[in-house]
Amino acid sequence: VAPVSVATLAAMKARGERIVSLTCYDACFARLLDRAGVDLLLVGDSLGMVLQGHATTVPVTVEQMVYHGASVARGRERALLAVDLPFMAAATPERALDSAARLMQEGGAQVVKLEGGEWLAETVRRLSEQGVPVCAHLGLLPQSVNRLGGYRFQGRDETSAERIRREARVMEEAGASLLVLECVPAALAGEISRSLSIPVIGIGAGAGCDGQVLVLHDMLGLNPGRPPSFSRDFMQGRGSIGEAVAAYVAAVRDGSFPAAAETPY
Ligand code: KIV
Ligand code: NA
Q: Which keywords, in A-to-Z order, does the entry hold (predicted)?
């Protein structure tokens, strides 16, 4: 099977085929998700919360992202591999270029993802010029949780929605190849997905995006007590992790995930 590239994902968007993504932090799951047909593996800095037990993603380092990226890279064959730049790693364009070089040369990243709006436009341009496929990330920015004061939906009033619309355009114009929209109203995410030519992958952003991503451990029901309102436990009624992941892949492809119940706004 031909490996997935950012061009493959763009072609899927053009054909109206939904893109399936999950977070992934190790080689074992990389093999499983890759074989189940997941298109995009995201080594998210959510690993700071999911694997390390931190309350936020702020403590995660470039070194740790390199370690997990390299582990996932050894397990994947077909799926495209995106790795997050962690907190402060894109504080200046120079720092972002150095960090991205490490993620790609040591961490096996094929796409580098970074959180933030207009202030990152120059960084996205510089990375793209150097041949780095960039995934932008707008809406809820978990690395800014200490400023935001909590994990809340963004873009719910017109001022905030207009800012996200503008930032999405700016990221595309700066050369981003992909965009993740986290926790924004479905109508806004759908509108941005239709207006951009690059694929938009949603999490907590409704069914109108070009693709969906979830945190692996959330969709496997490994977050007991507080599952996010926009996630689904795909282990419910299924006997194995393989079956649960296959069900997720099918549900994203046919548009049945996320359903209305998993679309809070
Ligand atoms: O860190 C992460 O897992 C992410 C996804 C939820 C998009 O950024
Ligand atoms: Na992240």
A: Cytoplasm, Magnesium, Metal-binding, Pantothenate biosynthesis, Transferase
* 46-79 as b/e: b if 16+ CB within 10 A: bbbbbeeeeebbbebebebbbbbbbbbbebbeeb
What pTM did the predictor assign?
Answer: 0.98
Is the CB of 44 inside a 6 Å radius of any atom of ligand 1?
A: yes
Q: Which neighbouring-strand residues pair with 60?
A: none
Catalytic position from the list 77, 182, 191, 262: 182
- Active-site residue flag, 182: yes
Dmax of the chain from CA atoms? 49
pLDDT tens, 37-67? Answer: 999 999 999 999 999 999 999 999 999 999 9
Amino acid, single-letter form, for residue 164:
I
- Distance between CA 96 and CA 155 in Å, rounded? 27
